[in-house]
Give the backbone structure.
Amino acid sequence: MSLFTVDALLCKGDGRCCQVCPVGIIAMDSKGYPVAVAGAEERCINCGHCVAVCPHGALSLKSMAASDCALLPQGWNLTPPQVELFLKGRRSIRLFKKDIVERAIIERVIDAARYAPSGTNRQPVRWVVVHDTAKVRQIARETIEWMRSLIVEKSSMAESLRFDYLVSGWDAGRDFICRGAPHLVLLYGLKDDMIAPGSCMLAGEYFELAALPHGLGTCWAGYATMALNKWPAAAGIVNISSKCACFAGFLVGYPQNGYARIPLRNEPRITWR
Ligand SMILES: Cc1cc2nc3c(=O)[nH]c(=O)nc-3n(C[C@H](O)[C@H](O)[C@H](O)COP(=O)(O)O)c2cc1C
């Protein structure tokens, strides 16, 4: 089967598929139908833009039938004020109820997050959901042990990130690492894949945003993520392959409080040329 098929009855020869292809592997033939250029198979990144742009459903990729791609409803976009409020209204949540989040809800949020952009559409992100709250607590504990070891070594990271406060907080019964969250969601990829870190971080932020309408609270779990990459006792709890690294992690649960206002942020530093 060729890279893509075109239904001649549906194709209007408008060339949209050819125009949007990011790697330029679709040309229009003399009859006005899209055809694959030489070497198209190996250059195609399977982004599906050629399928998605056609309003007639005329083109299907070998890997992606038009009939399997959901139709976008008319006027599906949000208004600028809605988006601005949504983005500015999100807060990092650090106080969680004890309630468990159903797996189906987390799966649904991840399903939306997998639509985040990724370099050359490689989609290198892999997910671990630490659903077991006891394991989340164990990861927090091991993160503290990692911090203690760095304090003993007098590492500059321990000094600059003030690990001493985090450790003494833990010893006094306060978890500044996983904040008592019931769940931890981790995004990881191959260590030697230069696309993986950025793709994981982007998918992670999509995850945070997609979690909001479900009434979930999330917070980047930066300390725990660092420990998972550096401290074998922490890594062993989630058992990620040694060829991989964790590039983003999030505390997840139902928030104890909502927020009443949008806090101030720095003015954007923009240069126009
Ligand atoms: C890469 C990254 C790592 C972070 N790690 C932590 C963390 O370990 N613990 C924490 O409480 N917050 C963490 N945060 C959350 C930031 O502190 C938070 O985004 C910032 O204070 C702004 O607050 P807001 O998200 O509510 O706007 C992290 C954020 C990012 C982007």
Remarks:
- Residues 4-68 form a domain with the Alpha-Beta Plaits fold (CATH 3.30.70.20).
- The chain has a mean pLDDT of 97.
- Strands lie at 4-6, 26-28, 34-36, 59-61, 126-130, 183-190, 217-220, 244-253.
